[in-house]
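Lab notebook page, bench 4
Experiment: in silico fold of construct C2
Operator: M.H.
Input chain length: 787 residues
Purpose: comparison with the prior construct
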Amino acid sequence: MSNHVHTRARRSSVLSPVVLVVLGALAAGCLADAEPAPEAPDDTGVGEQPLVSVGSPVAGPATASATLPAAGMSAVPASTPISDTTTSAIRLASFSNGANLAAGPTSDRASWRNAATTDPFSAPPALRTHLDEALASADAKVAAALDEADATATLAAFRAMFPGGLSASVTQDFDGFAAARARWLKRSIEKTGTFNYPDPRLFGEARQRGARLYCAAREVQRQQSVRGKRSMGRRALAELKLFGHTVDLLVMEPTVVLDGPERFTGSGANDGAQAFVVPILAGGKLTPIGNMGLPGFGEMRAPLAFVSADGEVVNDASLDSTTGAFRRRFQTVTHADAVVSRRAVVRPDPVRFPLFDIGVVHVYLDLNARADIGTLSTPNERLLGHTSGTLPFGLTPRPMAPIGSIVAPFPVSWGDMPMMLNSGTAATPTPVAPASGLRWFLLSPSGAGDMGLMPVTNPMLARMIQDDDHTFTVRHSAGMESVLTAGAGFDIGVFAMWLDVSGGLGVNGGQEQVLRDAVALENQQPVTALSVTPRGFVNATYSAAIKLHLRFGPFGFDVPIVNTRGTLAETTTGDWPEANRFRMGTGSGTGAPLTQPNVQSHLPLDGAFSSFPVDVDTCLADTAPNPPTPPPCAADGPSGARPAVNICLTGRAVSGFPYPSNVCADPASYSNTLRASGFSAAQAKCVEAQLGLVCAPVSTQTSSTTVNHVTDIRFNPDGSIDTSAIGAEAKAVSEAMQQCEDAFGAGAARALFGVEACDDHAKPFSPNRPPFSVTAGGTTIRPPSCE
């Protein structure tokens, strides 16, 4: 037997014991009045075999009692007649239901292991041995995948640009889940003869769960080694609008990689037990601040090692005191799941970098950042989601979008599933309230009828009643708290500028990958699958107050550029579409449910393929090594450029005399108009000097009263400053202002000239064109950068 582990979801339901009442089936038979017949030869089959044999289970201890200890199995299918040994027969069966498995995961490894392995009527002794082997392997797997060096390596590119300290802490977690079991009567000795019963098809999914998960994982890793397809796409969670430049905040690129499934099946002896480890690396790249020349973080990988163990044992019961023979033989299947995982926190020392430039002064962001890798939670997202004292009618399971033609949409309510929970007839289903502590399910034994009821022999029926869905949410996040500060001012005598800056930016967000080991639908049929669904979350607060101070010779200007604050409330992207998800099909009620179910898998942004191209026996006989696990994706390199805000010199029209359209095409006509209207020659020359400055390239007439010109007060592309050019322009501006003061009188310089923050086209920023704001990212999922 082989399996993988993923079963974690908090349970709060209080289900009464489930009784499956099969239409036309008889009540459970009582053997008390039957006389014993001679005991049949032992058929437990303990000879040498390559792996655990489901056909020849290991024998456990016997009991004189008529039945075995209950072992937490409250779902009881009605028994078929004693003499029925056909393939549809089922006698004295029971299995775990949603109430038996309702407890949340435990972090106590020893108690979890003891609960799963110590009952000799439920598990063979070797189950503990192989489980311990698998747990040791899981510990080694997660340790190799994430330690302090791995955690700090994700910020290597960022730290290379901003040298400083970097600290990391790593925590390992364990979550174990209640073992799921199933039991049935394998042989009964009656006075009318000995009856050997087949293994119930109803329990086909409950057996070999570990083997199927292991084999599906092997096939998926083989496919991934050929196809690549580990990235689920890229998406910016928020955007900072910064003086016309869009800065991406928290660009997420989730990834998922299989990391070498392993099996622990003993030395070849059929000891009735086996265990498996299926390691999954739930990863992702985060670029905290993109499109402005800064690097991102490398791929963060959170290891989750799913540990699964299966055991099968037969036990004799009902000792006949007259003959000394045991009249009954039961077979019990136990499946145990746990997850070993690691998470990390990385904290770089505070860094300071220029966020944008205004003229020839930098505005810095003093940044405190933190990266959380692999924070794990286990929300209760079971299929039925039972609540105490109610039947699961009208509930809304998780939606599943279609992918091509292989995955159908999930039904809108439980009543639309191909199974009904009701009394009455197939044509008129009626809910039944719990009675005498029992919950009754009327099911069609054939599946025929208008309601399309699920046959009681379908193994997916037992899985759904077990309600054994498990959900893991893996979160990679980054928190950024930052303060805006101004760089050093600039002063060359004829010109000076400096900034008053306050405010800051706080952003928290990242990606979640929701791993579900759960019932789903494929081609309108229930299946089991391990899926990984990405989604993002972000929230932000921001404020900025910036005032620009400029001096041209004796003339000074104080210009408010930004005064804003705001909040981006918690925003989520929602679940990404099916095409961007990872899905590994592990079981179904069609095909050969025990050894080769008909179910498919798909990698992100790729087509579907069969999970089981070969059956479980062939898979387990394959000793070929796993393909190598690909190394983590490198961080995104610096892209884009730091935003630069220009200083525009503004020319203002003389009061009462607006500029004609396109005044810069013929500035003399405007000054001549002033002369004709009685203005002095000195005043007209002042205006000609003004227009000579503001109409020089690059200029824009923004209205009938203003013309803007982009000055030379800015950094060169290489970061240097052309002091001579700035000085020459500032001297010309100062002289023109003085000329206008002489012509029009005191105050004329500020009346006819102004200063604004503007873009490369001389267009000013304004309340209608906010220079600083944070909004949610777009809905577009971008192509991957990590393959």
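Observations: The radius of gyration is 37 Å. The mean pLDDT is 83.
Next step: discuss at group meeting.
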